[in-house]
Amino acid sequence: MRLNVTVNGEAMSADDVWEGESLLYVLRERLGLPGAKNACEQGECGSCTVYLDGTPVCACLVAAGQAQGRVVRTVEGLAPGGGLHPIQQAFLQAGAVQCGFCTPGLIVAVHDLLERHPDPADADIREALAGNLCRCTGYEHIVAAVKLAARR
Prior knowledge:
By secondary structure, the chain is α+β, with helices and mostly antiparallel strands. 33% of the residues lie in helices and 14% in strands. The chain starts with a strand and ends with a helix. It comes from Dactylosporangium darangshiense. Keywords: 2Fe-2S, Iron, Iron-sulfur, Metal-binding, Oxidoreductase.
């Protein structure tokens, strides 16, 4: 099938897409957007989190056919113009990026949280990040980054 999707505000298409291949695969391998990471392929780790029609989803669990004609926003599309989004900058400043594999999914999850709750409590932050696994940071620096981003 030919997949037509709007990604980060730009109409894109990919040919010869099998309807059952994952949106994650299409984004990374067919559309050249490697920000969302391929870790568990089971929706357990959150590394592939993207927005689909404004709702955060694990792109590894979305079949390409389900994305036909829809709107996707990836971590690459959070800060137009090639700069860093304030959340990305806060992650760097707070030391919340170590190996970086979980970071794109965390950034999207934090973006969604702060859009809904601009001044979240610690419990809100931890709940919002519960679907994102990180093996490096221990989460304290991530929570600090969220608080820093919220202050901005």
